[in-house]
Amino acid sequence: MLFSNLLSNKLSQKFISVCNYMFQLRFFLNRLNESFVCWSKLKLKSLVSLVLLGAPVFIQAAIPIGPEFQVNSSISMHQKEGVVSSLKNGGYIIVWVGMPHGGNDHDIFAQRYKADGTKEGLEFLVNSDTADEQWSPSVTSLSNGGFIITWSKYRRSTDESDVFAQRYKSDGTADGNEFQVNTSTEGYQGSASVISLNNGDLIITWYSHTENNDSLFAQRYKADGLAYGTEFQISSATGGSQGIPTAIGLNNGGFALAWSENNSIYTQRYQTDGSLDGSVFKVASANAQWLPRAPVISSLNNGGVVIAWLMDKEDWSESKVFAQSFKANGSVNGDAFLVNTRSLSSPMACVISTLNNGNFVISWSSYFEVSDTFGVSAKSYNENGSIIDEEFNVNSTVGLHMFPAISTLDNGEFMVIWQTLDALSSISVRRFVPAQASVTVSLP
Predict the structure, then answer these.
(1) Partner residues linked to 279 by β-bridges
(2) Which superkingdom is the protein from (predicted)?
(3) Is the model's pLDDT at 48 over the cut of 60?
(4) Residue 221: which H helix or E strand, with range?
(5) Residue 14, Cα to own-chain centre: how many angstroms?
(6) Please, are residues 257 and 246 in contact by the beta-carbon 8 Å criterion?
């Protein structure tokens, strides 16, 4: 009888703990869509059993907050090249290339969103000159609550391309006029990327192609928009042809770059004043008929960085996504690791973003032969590069989904946007609650 009472009391205490935990879980689930709530109910019985047995509970899947939705309100053809950035007010902004009125020229458009995901105002035209071709946008938030958008402009009159930028205030109104970033104007200057540094400064990087060579350039700006000196050339590892650069701000106030050069991937760290911090480091190189390309970089909360890139077979019959993490001092953190588990064919791009909890997410698009479609996938890792969840589909509809971009929001969620090649060629977006490594329930 005594044993029975003790057992009953212990189970009651555990049941109370389970109820408390399930109340917290329910509060968490209320933030999510109904599809996940249904999933949670199916798992509820197993979850309660695990807790009663005193086992830790693992929630290891990024959870979508509803289905994807269309960003652009214009329904004409050629909406593409979407990019996204979180804003200081908890919202976010999405920028893309569109051709809403027909004709031969593309323009840059943007749409702001509130923290709850509802639109803030209408989509708006970014570039003031609509007579030339505009493409390749980039966007980042500013320390004053505003944001800045960069893009490339092709002038038919001179057969040259240049990099332009436009700053915006926190209310979404333009802060001054658009301005040209590059000083050298020979040949092609474009494919720019803009990032914010910890001190509020900005770095804009771009790719330069002239008759003589390919090279990379950058220009630093103060928080108020004034330039630090003139543009400077990013160091070349081999003196050979360089690819489009990608940049990220570091926790120490500096920044780091990654780029492709002569079938290899390189990275270089810079100090806050733009001077070199160490030497150029080779991240990956061609091997056994595999060629690396299209690197992306993200800073980690521990002061390090992680770089992801694509590896293609020379005959383009297969591709893979790889990544390598680095410590705060610039040294490698373990070995490079394979990201995708499903076989890839014709991948379009890979992107990466660090989450508020220190983990990071890598997303990519590729062709799936079984369904004859293109889809966007993603995978979550913790700060040391260990897998948190298996790769998952970002898009919920079947079709041609490609060219993803990713950003982390202030509330800890992350979002992926991409181009959907349907009859409208639209920009799609989907938000996620990030995967957690584990949830341990404390029992009495």
Answers:
(1) none
(2) Bacteria
(3) no
(4) strand 214-221
(5) 42
(6) yes
To the nearest 10°, report the CA torsion of 308, 314, 319, 325: -20
Residue with tokens 């998952």: 392
pLDDT digits (tens, 9 = 90+) for 51-89: 444 444 445 689 999 999 999 987 666 789 999 999 999
Per-residue tokens: 74: 């214009």
Q: What is the distance between the alpha carbons of residues 384 and 271, in angstroms, rounded to a whole number?
A: 24
Of 197, 166, 160, 170, the residue nearest 181 (C-alpha): 166
Q: Which residues contact 122 (CB under 8 A, 6 or more apart)?
A: 73, 111
Rounded to whole angstroms, the Cα distance separating 359 from 276 reads 28
Pick the CATH number of 64-433 from 2.40.128.460, 2.120.10.10, 3.40.50.720, 2.40.160.20: 2.120.10.10
- The CA distance from 411 to 224, in Å, is 27
Identify the three-state secondary structure at position 190. strand
pLDDT (average), residues 413-419: 97
What does each C-alpha distance from 174 to 118, 167, 190, 228 come to in angstroms?
Answer: 21, 6, 22, 22
pTM given for the model: 0.85
Q: Is 385 left (phi over 0), alpha (psi -120 to 50) or beta?
A: left
Structure tokens at 430: 């989907």
Torsion sign (Cα): 125, 127, 133, 138:
negative
